[in-house]
Design brief:
The complex is a heterodimer of chains A (333) and B (186).
Chain A: E1 5-7, H1 11-20, E2 37-43, E3 55-65, E4 69-70, E5 79-82, E6 85-98, E7 101-112, E8 120-124, E9 127-133, E10 136-142, E11 145-149, H2 178-202, H3 207-211, H4 214-235, H5 238-264, H6 273-279, H7 287-303, H8 306-312, H9 315-330
Antiparallel strand pairs in A: 1-2, 2-3, 3-7, 4-9, 5-6, 6-7, 8-11, 9-10
Chain B: H1 2-43, H2 56-67, H3 72-83, H4 88-111, H5 115-135, H6 140-150, H7 152-161, H8 168-177
Helix pairs in contact in B: 1-2, 2-3, 2-4, 3-4, 4-5, 5-6, 5-8
The chains are: A alpha+beta (333), B mainly alpha (186).
């Protein structure tokens, strides 16, 4: 533990223990009375260089023969030991019994208030604990410890200024607000994040534009549907292939119609196209294709002539139109 | 649809949590700023009354104000309150401040040969410094001033040399009333 050992097991403590031990009770094995106290060792820090108000920590390790236990009532209590010395803390740690030896560790903290004029040797006095096993009592003597107390100031002031210049008062400092400010910023950030999540979900403000792009989504879906058509034409049986192709084509048409409906805010049919172009002039750029598209879907849905519709408006062109419409919607066409 | 609702609910929860925390910390910041205003005013010398419910730093500022103006009777209850408060640093500082006020007053008395009022002041100041050091053993300014208080008797002849006559029986009384003094001169 890095602290020099100060006192070895005290022979006097052993002798005292032997003297203090009462006679051996019949039936108790011989030897119990002889060595109830194995050792008392005091570990202390440097024995010099202490200034007024310094604390000194002592550790006492006590080893007793197994049936004996330290009497807690005999522990020193935190108190004023001398007019210049306080015992501040007393902590006993029972380390249990191993190989017939009961070990204790006693931590003591002293504080010295001696105002030395020159280095002065002082003693922390010895004290005695007691251990017992039933009626048997053994004294455990913890040795005294001496150390040098050093002065803090010179005897006759040779410095500048007043003879008894006190250290100045401590000017009150403001309450630190940095932590609270940071916490405030963080909580405002959390609130803002919550607001953004809600706005994004509800399509408010700048997120509204994201919502109002039906052709962007439609273009994606049309591409997927057309892709599925081509894929199906390779792998499926001929009869189911045509069905599959038709379903994919109709789905692609439907998707585009829904995008028109969403853009106009109501259902758009071939008859309504004039009104649609009036409201959404930018789409006039693709007027011919759009009219073709409506013609194709009229055939596909109302005439039941999907093949005819595909002839009017081939799937590849459908995908191209979807891409063009997306670009127009974005305003980049 | 379900994920959309989940997103919305988590957004609302986040917003409420953030707003609640913002309100709490904003309120605290406002109170702290107000208290810092009081502290600054007290340090600047404005006589602002405080109540026992005020935060410890404000009470310490009031204690500082009173102690630096030798209003010890008013300062003592505040020092007691801080010494038993939750903040050990402020407790040690409060004890140090009132100890300083007492020791300054005692030195003033000694400077004009008034031994009788000086003695109990020195004794109390020593107690204050000692309590401060019990709370904070590495409080160097408290160590230094405690050392001054402890040696006050030996420093006495220097005060005498600086012009004033001290009746020997007064010095003797100071000796007996200061039990914490180291015995024997070098």
């Amino acid at each position: 533990m890095g602290i020099p050992r100060r006192a070895r097991p005290q022979l006097s403590a052993l002798l005292l223990a032997l003297l203090a031990a009462p006679c051996v009770v019949p039936g108790v094995a011989p030897g119990v009375a002889q060595a109830q106290l194995r050792s008392v060792e005091l570990y202390a820090p440097r024995p010099f260089g202490y200034l007024i108000g310094d604390t000194i920590g002592h550790t006492v390790e006590i080893a007793l023969d197994a049936p004996f236990t330290l009497d807690p009532a005999s522990l020193p209590q935190p108190r004023s030991v001398d007019y210049w010395l306080d015992l501040r803390e007393v902590r006993l740690d029972d380390q249990g019994v191993s190989e017939g030896v009961h070990r204790y560790r006693l931590d003591l903290v002293y504080q010295s208030f001696y105002a030395a004029l020159e280095p002065k040797r002082l003693d922390i006095p010895a004290f005695t604990l007691s251990a017992r096993d039933g009626d048997h009592r053994v004294s455990v003597a913890v040795p005294a410890w001496s150390f040098l107390m050093s002065p803090l100031r010179e005897i006759v002031s040779t410095g500048q200024g007043a003879v008894m210049a006190l250290r100045p008062d401590i000017v009150p400092r403001p309450i630190p607000t940095r932590g609270t400010t940071l916490a405030l910023a963080a909580s405002a950030g959390v609130a803002l994040a919550g607001l953004l999540v809600i706005a994004w979900q509800m399509g408010w403000g700048p997120f509204g534009r994201r919502r109002a792009r039906p052709f962007a989504r439609a273009a994606r879906q049309v591409r997927a549907a057309i892709g599925a058509m081509r894929h199906g034409s390779v792998s499926s049986a001929p009869s189911s292939t045509s069905l599959h192709r038709h379903a994919g084509y109709k789905q692609a048409l439907q998707t585009l119609h829904r995008a028109f409906d969403a853009t106009a805010g109501r259902g758009v049919f071939a008859e309504d196209l004039a009104g649609f172009f009036a409201d959404h002039a930018s789409f006039s750029a693709a007027e011919t294709e759009i009219r073709h598209l409506f013609e194709a879907s009229r055939r596909a849905f109302f005439g039941g002539d999907v093949l005819g519709a595909e002839a009017v408006f081939p799937p590849a062109e459908l995908a191209a139109l979807a891409g063009r419409l997306r670009a127009i919607e974005r305003g980049s066409a | 649809m379900r994920t959309g609702r989940l997103t919305l609910i988590s957004g609302i929860l986040l917003l409420l949590l953030g707003l609640g925390a913002t309100g709490y910390f904003g309120g605290r910041l406002l109170l702290d700023k107000r208290d810092n205003g009081f502290i600054a005013a007290l340090v600047a010398g404005q006589d602002i009354a405080t109540s026992a419910d005020d935060p410890a730093p404000v009470i310490f500022a009031r204690l500082f104000f009173l102690a630096t103006r030798d209003r010890l009777e008013e300062a003592q209850p505040l020092a007691n309150q801080l010494a038993h408060g939750e903040d050990p640093r402020l407790a040690a500082m409060a004890l140090y401040t009132i100890g300083n006020a007492r020791l300054r007053l005692a030195i003033d008395h000694l400077g004009v040969n008034r031994i009788d009022p000086a003695t109990p002041l020195v004794r109390l100041a020593k107690q204050n410094y000692r309590q401060a050091l019990v709370i904070q053993p590495d409080f160097w300014d408290a160590k230094y001033n405690l050392d001054i208080a402890m040696r006050l008797v030996r420093d006495f002849p220097q005060v005498e040399l600086s012009g004033e006559e001290i009746p020997p029986e007064a010095a003797k009384r100071l000796w007996t009333d200061l039990p914490g003094l180291p015995r024997g001169l070098p």
